[in-house]
Amino acid sequence: MMNDLKLEVKNLAKTxxxxxxxxxxxxxxxxxxxxxxxxxxxxxxxxxxxxxxSILKTIYRTYLASYGCIEFHRKNGLILDLVSSTExxxxxxxxxxxxxxxxxxxxxxxxxxxxxxxxxxxxxGETKHRAFSHAADLLExxxxxxxxxxxxxxxxxxxxQQRVNIARxxxxxxxxxxxxxxxxSLDEQSSDKVLNLLMGLKEKGIAMIGIFHDKxxxxxxxxxxxxxxxxxxxxxAIVQKEAA
Length: 244
Ligand SMILES: Nc1ncnc2c1ncn2[C@@H]1O[C@H](COP(=O)(O)OP(=O)(O)O)[C@@H](O)[C@H]1O
Ligand SMILES: [Mg+2]
Hints:
five-stranded parallel beta sheet, alpha/beta, Rossmann fold, 10 strands, 33% helix, five-stranded antiparallel beta sheet, binds adenosine-5'-diphosphate
């Protein structure tokens, strides 16, 4: 079971067309192929601007690929191509099988840290008591002081907000998690705790694709990596389209 494929990305490419600029085209990334197994973490590496975040957004279908396919192996055993699937299939998948975790928390006023973290568990029908107790455990594990549990994260530090966001992103983990620099501005101790949490998710069979900017972190959590340099037009990324 642990060797089962979760996601297969084949020859993926993305070109951005800037409609406000006469259809000018900017190359996002190209020639991206990799696969991720259940219970494994694949790290996307490469310089800033190489297209790492855009690849995650293309998998999540925030961006539509220009070329290639993304085969998602569903819980029901069927394979869904995330490039050509319908909007409603994508929405269902996001709800049940694919999650996106960034370093940025969308803070809602008057919603406490505990409520923020517990929400995804309540959504899948967990009892209030168990959802809140699990949320408290996670926040404690990530080193958030208990006196902050009942406060809105609006006034939290950047690192505290980031940890609340990660707790929220993993409390009811989807089968595939996309992680865009989840440890970006955390101190060593906090990012250690986050990495431990991710290792625990692997043991549960969760597949992950993550962007981490430090090699030591990658060595610790990743089972494989894909270096994004496929952007052959890095230095001449801007191609002027012929005016129609
Ligand atoms: N929505 C967009 N519209 C136009 N260009 C974009 C868009 N998103 C990303 N890009 C461009 O694609 C390239 C890759 O960006 P990104 O994926 O954020 O890189 P990374 O995460 O590796 O630093 C950059 O040149 C960036 O400017
Ligand atoms: Mg990025």
